Amino acid sequence: MKFIDEYRDPARARALLDRIRQVARHDWTIMEICGGQTHSILRNGIDQLLPPNVQLVHGPGCPVCVTPLETIERALAIAARPNTILTSFGDMLRVPGNSKDLFMARSEGADVRVVFSPLEALQIARDNPSKEVVFLGVGFETTAPANAMAVHQAAREGLTNFSELVSQVMVPPAMRAMLSSPGNRVQGFLAAGHVCAIMGYEEYEPVAAEFGVPIVPAGFEPVDLLDAILKTVELLEAGRSGVVNAYGRVVSREGNPEARRVMQEVFEVADRPWRGIGVIPASGLVLRPEYKRFDAEKRFDVGHIAPQESPLCRSGEVLQGHLKPSDCPAFGKECTPQTPFGATMVSSEGACAAYYRYHRNSNT
What we know:
- With 364 residues, the chain is an alpha/beta fold.
- The chain has three domains: 5-62 and 171-243, HypD, alpha/beta domain 1 (Rossmann fold), CATH 3.40.50.11750; 65-167 and 285-299, 3-Layer(aba) Sandwich (Rossmann fold), CATH 3.40.50; 315-357, no CATH class.
- The chain is 38% helix and 19% strand.
- Strand 8 (214-218), helix 12 and strand 9 form a beta-alpha-beta unit.
- It is globular.
- The model has no long low-confidence stretch (mean pLDDT 93).
């Protein structure tokens, strides 16, 4: 299949690996931001095929993983209300709160539904005018346009029974926070191709210039990822920073102007807490004042809920590239997909789930 098979071609992959081995003369640590890229890297064994002096660490680019615990607890509190329908993507329903997840709440009688789009949640609101319908909207810039459009459309139609519990975050501030951290190990980034398809890569250029690092927008297939790793290593070996686009068939410098327009119309930038990391300044999106009537946090008065994380979960260190999942003492023992401590073991894009699924441990 065009644009699939050619990016899974073993001959091209071997040639790129050979070139990486030739170019990489020093030790380098590269972070892939996106959880989808993490799973592709482990599924295809790329982490084990790279030369030992090129190490990949896994970033906070899993939207389910970085959604703060208080958002889950607020969603659970809303779901427990009578005449309320709580909707979200399937992964979010499995993320553990302090005592249960949203699937457990549904088993106890709450009306909790899996949807594939916020516009589907909007239709549920139209079909159930006597009930409050809430969409738990999480994600990076990839999901923000659709979440914004649902609010925009609800306002346009005058729907009064629809709201969103918003937990939108953005990639560049997270990069800045990691690069500013005293324990930072990251020397270059593979940027998430789907985020760049929306936002472009212009916003990464100031980050690359300020911190002197290469940032390479990358796809998700093996050849995409190896090509991006090669470009990153070439820049590192040459002592160069900047942004080099390795996903040109999808990503442009300016991104998708219409998607960015609707985001900016509905959302504004604010400080945001990230699960396991803490508050990152100006890293999130919240509803603008003219759309605050669609803010479920305020509508249901759940903003005061602020639970504590388990001290046994070290997902924050995993998300910042300080720790490999298999180095966590609880990994694969107390913490498994069946008994997860945190979202990184639950999400289909979580690094801990990827290590567990693809049998990576500290001895491999």
